[in-house]
Amino acid sequence: MSSNSAQKIANFTVPGIKDASAEEAIKLLGDRMVALIDLSMTLKHVHWNVIGPNFIGVHEMLDPQVDAVRAMTDTIAERIATLGGEPWGTPGAVSSVRRWDDYSLGKATVVEHLGALDKVYSGVNADHRETLQKLAKHDPVSEDILTGDLADLEQFQWFIRAHLESSTGELPTQKATTEKGAARAASNA
What we know:
By secondary structure, the protein is mostly helical. Helices cover 67% and strands 5% of the residues. The strands form two sheets. A two-stranded antiparallel sheet has the order 1-3. The chain has a two-stranded parallel sheet with strand order 2-4. The model has no long low-confidence stretch (mean pLDDT 93). Residues 169-189 are annotated as: Disordered. Keywords: DNA-binding.
């Protein structure tokens, strides 16, 4: 496997797309596929390791997010295949191309995990927006898929932030640069 999470292997792509644009879309989608696989596993990890007051509400809030993110991953993988690519979603492929550190909290309180998840969603969502700008030049269908995904991901982040935001609109995680820093800031708020 190449260093990408997806590569073009077919001698064709969908009609109307140049090979170079299909190859770039496959590369960009492969990166987003890895991010979503990682996000779904992180959300499930938090689901298993969250403790404290409001545990059940957060525990139950995360499963629908996991399911939705897994569905996004499947749609992106199938788009990669449609474009003539080969999606790679094995654990080894995911860990070999991931550009970010593993989620840094184990068992922790609701507010700590939500603070850390705010940082996770900020990274995923910012990268999705950046990728959308690049996809606009290559494949409007792939761009549309990611646009729909981003709307859901931003809503999920809003769900997380609703637990953290003060009545004056302050978000304690805003200035944190790490997950642990965000967890600490949320816990101290």
